[in-house]
Write the C-alpha cells for this entry.
Amino acid sequence: MSQAAEPVIAEQVDDDEERATAASRGDRRGGDRRRGLTDRARAERSLAWKLCAPAVVVMLAVTAYPIAYAVWLSLQRYDLRFPNERGFVGLQNYVDVLRAGLWWQDVAATVIITVITVALELVVGMALALVMHRAVFGRQTVRASILIPYGIVTVVAAFAWQFAFTPDLGFVNQWLNTDRAWLTERATSFLVITLTEVWKTTPFMALLLLAGLATVPDVLQQAAKVDGANAWQRFFKVTLPNIKAAVLVALLFRTLDAVRIFDSVFIQTQGANGTETLSILGYSQLINRLNLGVGSAVSVLIFLIVILVAFLFVKGFDTELSQARGER
C-alpha cells in the first residue's frame, strides 16, 4: 500500500469512529427519551416524590402502623383478664378462629346480608339513576330528594327502622294488622337489617351509576331508536355495556361496606338470632371479652377478606377496560 493512501485510510477510520460515537450518543439520548429520563422528567419526578412524601408519611402513621400492630397482637396470647398468661403463640389464634363454628356462622350471616343488600341496591339504584338522568322538570329537586337517606347517619337510620318494626310503637304492624315481633326471629331480623341497609345506601349506588349514565353518548341512544330498538333493548344493548365500569366501581364500594357491616346489626339485634356478622364478632372479642389476641386475629382475617374482594373486583375492572379498548 502506498504512503499517499495511508492518510486517506486514517481519515476514513477517524470518520467511522466519530459516526459510531455520535450514533452511540444518539442511541443513549433516544433511550432516555423513550424512558422519559430527560432532565425535566427527572426534576418533575423528584418534585412529585417530594410533594407526596408528607401524605405518604401520614398514611403510614395512621394505617400501616395500626395494621402491623394488629398483626403482632394476633400472634400473641393476650387476654386482659389474664395478663400473666401473655405470650407468643404464632398462628394459634388464627387456627382457633377458623376451627370455631361461630366464625363460619358469622361468615354465612355476613354473606347473606352482603349478597342480598348489594343486589337490591344495584337494581333499585339503577332505577333511581335512570329517573335522575331522564328527569326533565325539577331535576335538582328530584336528585336532592333521592339523596336524602344517604345523608342520614347510619345509627339514626338503624334506630328509625327498629322503631318502625317495634310491635307496640311501630307503624309496620299497624299497616299489616299484626302484632309480630320482627326482631326476635332470624329471617325477619335479616329482613329489617336488609331494608335498613338498602334504604340508607341505595342513593350512594344511584349516584355512582348516574355518573356512568352521563358518559353514554346520546347519539348511541338515538341510533338505536332509529334502528327500531325499544326501551329495554336500548338499555341492555346500549346503556348497560357502556356503564360496566361504573357498575363495577359501585359494586366494589358497596360490597366492601357490606362485608364490614356493623352499625345496623349492632343497633337492631346486637348479633342475636343468628345475625351476628364478622365485625360484631371482632367487637365482641376485643371489647366485651377483652381478648386482644383472638380479636386481632378476627380483625386481620376481615382485612384479608376485604383485600381479596377488592382484588377480584379490580381484576374484573381491568378486564372490562381491556375489552372496552379492544385488547385481547
In short: The chain is about 75% helix and 0% strand.
